[in-house]
Structure formats: structure tokens, C-alpha cells
């Protein structure tokens, strides 16, 4: 069953600024010298590179590092939980990071770093910042299995809560150019399938897309 939810909210942000610089260059004259045979340095073997986060990890969650842009607290839930809990009354079991909000429907059996057996009855409280490229009307899409909520600048924008199969909801917002605080809450009920995706339609466009990683900044 597909559910469509639309609202219009006016939120404000701060414009970004940038600065530039210049440099000078010069040339130095020198006397001609006889050519000298060039010595070639022996080739240097580079060590194998670790997998960069320029490449999306195979699993949706990983150990946070200096390049992380989406952080999340993980909470264990009681069996048969039907809705997102009140995180203020709970203690997280671990902290993890997400590469982006584009976890299409998939089996979830890997668990979390340090919590490998936690594959059902858990919740995430994730935070990031979203860079809005220009002021205007944006449509946001929240797709999840099970429940989720999207907050922008501490305002609940989309409520997709409840224990359910993959369900999509959307809302329309008017946003100013600049950075905006984003929070996405999510919970997984019974195993095995999960999904969590956040998308947008930019002003003047009809193209839906899952928000790319380069639009997010560390919270």
C-alpha cells in the first residue's frame, strides 16, 4: 500500500559565503649549461589502499571516522514494539555512521559494528546537516520498513511511523539556501527486511532522487 502525505512548511537558514584570492608569478633567467643525462628513479610500489568512503560500503552501517557525515545512536527495543520510542528515556547501545540515506529494501543480517547479533527490534536516532543549494520549494520523500520520522530544523516534516512493510510518504517545504539541521529516526521490527531512504525534488524540477552523500555535512 502506498501512502502519500503532503505538507507545506516555511523554514529559514543562513546563506553561505565564499572568498577568493590571487597570486603572482615570476621568471628567472639562467645561463645555458650542457645537457645532463636524466637519472630515472626506481619505481615505488604503493601499498594497497583501504576502501575509501568515496565508495559506498557493502553494509549500510560502519564505524564512524573523520569523514563521516551522518551519525546515529543505536537502541535495542523490546520485542513487539509498534512505534518509535522516546529516545530521551533510553541509553544507546552503540554509535554508528551511515554513508547516506539510501538503504533500499534488503535483507538485514549483518548487524552493527560491535553489535553483530542485533538484526531486529532496534532503533536509530540519526543526525546530519543538509546543504540546500538554493532557496525555494522542495518535496521530500521518506521511504522505510518499518517506521521512520524526518525532522528538519527540529520540525517534524514527515511521520512514517509504525510497524509496516516498505511505505513511502512525502511533504513539501519552502527552504532557504544554506545548511539545515536534519534528524531521521528509524526502527526495525521483526527480521529480515529493512529499508530507509530520503529523497527530494528540487525547485523547478520534477526529477525525484535519493539525496546524494555530497549534500550532507557533519552534524
How are the elements arranged and paired?
Layout: E1 8-11, E2 61-62, E3 70-76, E4 94-98, E5 102-107, E6 122-132, E7 136-145, E8 148-152, E9 155-160, E10 167-175, E11 178-188, E12 193-201, E13 209-210, E14 216-217
Parallel strand pairs: 1-10
Antiparallel strand pairs: 2-4, 3-4, 3-6, 5-12, 6-11, 6-14, 7-10, 7-12, 8-9, 8-11, 12-13
In short:
With about 220 residues, the protein is an all-beta fold.
Multimerization status? single chain
Shape summary: globular
What radius of gyration results from the CA coordinates?
Answer: 23 Å
Strand content: 35-45%
Outline the structure in words.
This protein is mainly β and 219 residues long. It has a single domain (8-12, 58-217), classed as Jelly Rolls. 0% of the residues lie in helices and 41% in strands. The protein contains no helices and 14 strands. The strands form 2 sheets. Strands 2, 3, 4, 6, 8, 9, 11 and 14 form an 8-stranded antiparallel beta sheet that branches.
